[in-house]
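user: can you give me the structure for this one chain? tokens are fine.
assistant: on it. calling the predictor now.
[tool input]
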Amino acid sequence: MKKYPLLILSVVLLSLAVGTACGGTESAAEGEEGVAAAEDAAAAVLPLETFLTNINDPKSEKHARVQVKLAIVPEEALPSIQADALLMARLHDRVLTLLTTKTYQQLNDPEGKEAFRDEIREQLNPLLTTGKVKEVLLSDFVVE
């Protein structure tokens, strides 16, 4: 009869230890999600004008209409970027130049779109003296 209280105590302690370990893991995961959410919240969105242009397709006269939005970090950099008309024109020019080099196949392929986003980020970041482009978001994306 004396063995049962010791066994019950062992099971309870083991359960508490496992529960604490699992709870600690969840807290760490929640903490990491909180940091990621804070980084996303710290980004500001800079919408560029809609691009409408012919694309690089010698076999046909296809065109693309694309709305590009840039996630700028830190968000405090956004007002100075928007206030600089020459910089805004340069950003628009770089995206337009890249867009006109793309073929119909590249713009319709998911990997091609991702490569296009990466190229935009690589081309625009050197132009910025404050902040950087964290993410390129494409919306109103039509190629026909």
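assistant: here you go. Residues 24-29, 34-38 have pLDDT under 50 and may be disordered. Strands lie at 44-47, 51-54, 63-73, 132-143.
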